[in-house]
Amino acid sequence: MNIIITDDEALARQRLRKLLEELDHQVVAEASQGQQALQLCQQFEPDLLLLDIRMPVMDGIETARHLMALENPPAVIFTTAYDEHALQAFETNAVDYLLKPIRKQKLQDSLERASQLNRLQLANTATQTTSRRSHVAARNHQGLKLVAIEDILYFMAEQKYVNVVSAGGEVLIEESLKSLEQEFEHEFVRVHRNALIARKAISALQKSADGSQRILLKDTADTLEVSRRHLPAVRKLIKEMGG
Length: 243
Hints:
The chain is of the alpha/beta class and 243 residues long. 30% of the residues lie in helices and 33% in strands.
């Protein structure tokens, strides 16, 4: 199999590469963190991704969730020194995991069990953890695009897609506004049935000529309508923010 190794420790990657080569598998690339692993998966389309769980910025769990945005996601075997994390995250049999230090026979057994993950299995994996993502992922003509949560101004539902608007532009993702609201409830507030806005992006509330209330955003000329249902909560939030 063509394999990509992802681990933030160089010695761990070196040891895994040696074991895989002894088992006659080809390591096509190595990554030291999640974003890099996703980019390499687009570039090489490996059969398998060996993925460390504990990594800075983007951990292995989140990296695996973003694989859903790839057209041909690889099979995934997680590696971890923390057994409790593996047991908590993988109650389903959708993915396999190896406990460090990884032994050659255990690795071989796991490779034999590895099978291609489809989108449903990846989605099931995503629901096994309640950890908050640091990024959302979108697939466009250039491949996979990651947008940091801290850079997002608002989410806008558009038919079966959600438009993610940030200072760097716009991308479409195939997620529900409801699930985004639940995951990022501390960073975003619902202002309309089709819109979530970043709390820190709110500038002021303004009444428009037609009598509707709209939110003015920082760092953009965009304004978002506030529905009557959500207006009291929005007014309270702005008051608490000192607006």
